[in-house]
Each structure stands twice: as C-alpha cells, then as structure tokens.
Amino acid sequence: MSRDTEKKACYCAERGNPKMKEFFADIPDGYCGICDVCGEYGHMMAHPRSPTTGSWCDEHYEELLSYKIFTLNDIVSIAFLIAILLLATIVIYSIW
To answer: Among 1, 68, 94, 96, which residue carries the largest CB count within 10 Å?
Structure first.
C-alpha cells in the first residue's frame, strides 16, 4: 500500500483479503474500484460529504472535493431573502 493510498483511506488494503478476491479479479494492482463517473480505474472510498461509498478516479475525486455546496453568493442571497420575508411579516402585522 502506497502513501497515496493511505492518505485516501480507500479499500486497496482489502486486496489481500481472500473474501474480496473475486471482487478485485478484474481490477489491476494499485486500484480498488472503477470510477462511477467515467469507468476508469480508481479507488473505492467514502464520499467526502455524504454517508455513502463510491468509486472515483483521481480526477473525479479531486473534482468532488473541490465542489462547494454553498458559495458565499448563495449564503448572502438566502440571508437577503430571509430579511425581506421578516420585514414583510413585521409590516403586515403592524398594519393589523
């Protein structure tokens, strides 16, 4: 197991497990899965922000890590909409 594999926390260490021999039969050494996105050889590991496991090549895993769920612009826009709704609610209740 390489240092890169240790850093990724993938299933490459399971290659020596006799119960997993059939699973790894078509996957070359140095890999432990096939990318769910492009079909290239990659590594099976936990999703960084979701409670699931998948396989990704290095390129698509880096893309997955760099994906931001909310950008600063999204957060400011949501805060602005909430402020408008609160202001509208205050105005409506003050008229009554």
So the answer is: 1
Closest CA to 45 of 62, 29, 67: 62
Q: Which residues contact 20 (CB under 8 A, 6 or more apart)?
A: 14
Q: What is the pTM of this model?
A: 0.60
Digit-coded pLDDT (tens) for 23-80: 888 999 999 999 999 999 999 998 887 788 899 999 999 888 887 777 788 889 999 9
Secondary structure in 3-state letters for the chain:
CCHHHHHHCCHHHHHHCHHHCCCCCCCCCCCCEECCCCCCEEEEEECCCCCCEEEECHHHHHHHHHCCCCCHHHHHHHHHHHHHHHHHHHHHHHHC
